[in-house]
Amino acid sequence: MDVVWNRGAVTVRQVQDALQPDRELAYTSVLTMMQVLERKGFVGARRVGRANVYEATVSRDRFGMRSVMDVVNSFFAGSVPAMVSQFVDTERLSEKDLLKLQALVEDAVARRNGDVAPE
Q1: C-alpha–C-alpha distance, residues 13 and 111, integer Å
Q2: d(CA 4, CA 26)
Q3: H, E, C per residue of 19-85
Q4: Is 24 in contact with 13 (CB distance < 8 Å)?
Q5: CA torsion, points 79, 82, 87, 89, in degrees to nearest 10?
Q6: What would the pLDDT profile of 23-36 be if each residue is shown by its tens digit?
Q7: What is d(CA 9, CA 62) in angstroms, rounded to the nearest whole number?
Q8: pTM
Q9: If you placed Cys at 58, which of 44, 62, 90, 105 could pair as Cys (CB 3.0 to 4.6 Å)?
Q10: Mean pLDDT of 2-11
Q11: What does the domain layout of the chain look like in residue ranges?
Q12: In degrees, to the nearest 5, what angle opens at C-alpha 94 toward C-alphas 108 and 110?
């Protein structure tokens, strides 16, 4: 998706070429991924000559949120607290990270209660 967002309208070959320096991917693998992204509604395709040209239909933010929610639904039975708990219970988060999460939650609660104006 980064290639599509960065370049706008792209063909499968252009995506393959853009990814080539980092990894060796077959054209058919990239084609399959673009078709999956289209089926999921993340990109749209139009025919130009003999090639399909793909363009993003969702923003990075929306794509990220949908991807996160897919993980939440697949691995945490739709429970965001269960996912957050998984991170909090590991030692991968520093004290600074935990304090930042606490502040985010407190701010969200205050906004929902109308205690503070949104930033």
Answers
A1: 47
A2: 18
A3: HCCCCCCCHHHHHHHHHHHHHCCCEEEEEECCEEEEEECCCHHHHHHHHHHHHHHHHCCCCHHHHHH
A4: no
A5: 170
A6: 889 999 999 999 99
A7: 19
A8: 0.68
A9: 62
A10: 96
A11: 2-56, 60-112
A12: 10
Q: Which amino acid is at 3?
A: V
Q: Which two tokens stand for residue 58?
A: 């969702």
Q: State the residue for tokens 């990894």.
A: 23
Q: Are 66 and 73 in contact (CB under 8 A)?
A: no
Here the tokens at position 56 are 């993003």
Output the CA angle 73-77-82, nearest 5 degrees.
100
2-56 maps to which CATH number? 1.10.10.10
Q: How far apart are CA 100 and CA 52, in angstroms?
A: 44
User: What's 115's DSSP letter?
Assistant: S
pLDDT above 90: percentage of residues in the chain: 77
Looking up tokens 């209660």, which residue turns up? 113
